Task: structure prediction
Amino acid sequence: MRSIVQNKVEECLEILRWDRTKWADFWESLRKKFGPIVPNYEKVLRLSDEEVKKILWNTERRELDRFKWEWLDVSRNKKVECAESLSERAEFLELKREDFSVFLMALLGKTDWMVVDGEKEKIVLIDVFSLWRKGLLKELSLATLQAAIGFRKGENVGNYGGKKAYFNSLLKKVEEILSEGKETLKDLCEFLRNHVSYYDWVGFYFVEDGKLKLGPFVGEPTEHVEIPFGIGVCGQAAERKETFVVQDVTRETNYLSCSPKTKAEIVVPVFKNGEIVGELDIDSYSPSPFSEEDRRFLERICELVSKVV
Ligand code: SME
Result:
């Protein structure tokens, strides 16, 4: 299969080898090298030659240097994660159509992503310099997925506002899904898996006869269809009646492996009248992906789920 994500950032960072007075010439060489992508990028932003020169002139070498070091550090894994997370969602993103590719580039830092015409297919252009300026480089794979979803919805340009804003926008859709009742839990799992780049196995367990029994889920089939309280991450969350986050499953001794690909897991209880009735379990193929935002987002979802079960 073709690679959906192409990394061109290092080629853009070649600018640092050029004397600052020649940056406009470097940009010209970038236009030629990445024609028609870079010229189309300028068109979408409606930038004249003069404006491009001005932006370059106002960009400090120091800033680009800092960006470069952080990119080299953060990107090693993120580049791979970002490609894998899109491939994992191939059906949802209709990758078989081969009508778009994602290009990671460091451009003028004006907008996080846009769609431009490439030679054959559409290019979803991610300006990682723009993400970095907002301190959101670490969330590259989520920003990339959001851009790819935006492209499929017919959007042409967008900005990634960070997890909090993104999760808030997803919550509206979650409420809509759940308004149809209990039968939609599988749809909810699918929605979460498709819209969050590092939610790779999403499922519910419900308490039955004092044990956790597997409910609706999406992702690889699991042998853990019944889990006693206290056993594994799920069983521990049930026993403690609180959210359990494991950022690195290799360091958790009381853990039931579902897939060798899993690197991290979060389990959030569903309460009814103060009693635990079930759990939302999410496995991630990315290392240490969960933050406080994930916890808050998923706990809110479990409150909503508690109303329909
Ligand atoms: N890993 C879980 C078991 C469930 S699977 O991840 C789906 C645990 O340790 O409880």
Notes: The two ends are 41 Å apart (CA to CA). The chain has two domains: 5-161, 165-305. The CA atoms of residues 267 and 281 lie 4 Å apart. The longest strand covers residues 275-284.
